[in-house]
């Protein structure tokens, strides 16, 4: 008995989860004829596509949103200059300034985003298109076509003929970068001599951080570590900035544990007092606080990137990305037995920057 050329099982195969290979059968096959291409759905026109009055209303709405963004940026600028925190360092002023700046800038960026979305949804063409795949590198003709598509897109967007939208968007985007420029002002002055100078100078007492209590040499025992700031730091006009340059670690070790100064180095023989050494607390890599001291090895460690400085070799770098030793602060004692600086740092503390000399 011959098998039927077409069985019910075979007919039902594709409709019961046929593979992608089955659906990609060559043209002219029965399988291809079985599934007609549904094509694109009928295009649904928007109100703004058919009603010029609605299009004008949408255009005014987009322009209004962009102008609101402009106002938000103005609010930021007014708040920045009208609520300076340098004159009033209270918590209330800081909170008010942060609120005004955040709301102003956030509202400006939000309105630009909403305006662009509303513009695209209501006024830019939304016709469905089919684009066939092609080689990554097209022919010169294809490349010219791509350029024409971009130019057509500019034309279809209406940016050249909808002058109200275009000009309001230019105004909103033009003023938006100003807050960033203004905020650069808070990064501080250009290096110049500012980074070379600190509150340390001859006769300035070493005091405990943070209470500012002066330190007697007799109070520094072997193996002890003091976090030190210069006397009068709290009274300076910029205490945070000054502390970032003047923070010091004070450590006492046996003088015989310190190796002789290598030839070619600055003469630091008289910069310590009875085995008491003072070194900048600011890592020479990227400025993290060097606050970890291994008493047995006399190593100072930076917790950020593991730069290690050997106190017995005048804080020479023995491991990690830092390239320069920690600057040493020359110290001595005054007539009352308190530790004082005998001079400022010989080189700028902290990480390298472009105005440093080769020897620094």
Concise structural overview:
The chain has 360 residues and is of the alpha+beta class.
Explain this structure.
The chain is of the alpha+beta class. The protein has helices spanning 8-12, 20-23, 30-34, 47-50, 52-82, 91-122, 140-157, 163-175, 178-184, 239-246, and strands at residues 206-208, 225-230, 248-252, 276-280, 292-294, 299-301, 308-310, 316-319, 331-333, 339-341. It has two domains: 47-187, no CATH class; 194-341, Rieske [2Fe-2S] iron-sulphur domain (Rieske Iron-sulfur Protein, 3-layer Sandwich), CATH 2.102.10. It is built from ten helices and ten strands. The protein has a four-stranded antiparallel beta sheet with strand order 1-2-3-4. The protein has a four-stranded antiparallel beta sheet with strand order 5-6-7-8, with no helix packed on it. A hairpin with a 5-residue loop joins strand 9 (331-333) and strand 10. The longest helix is centred in the first third of the chain and has 32 residues, at 91-122. It is elongated, with a radius of gyration of 36 Å. The N and C termini lie far apart (101 Å). It holds the Pfam family Rieske. It comes from Quadrisphaera setariae. The chain crosses the membrane at residues 62-83, 95-117, 164-184. InterPro entries: QcrA_N, Rieske_2Fe-2S, Rieske_2Fe-2S_sf, Rieske_Fe-S_prot.
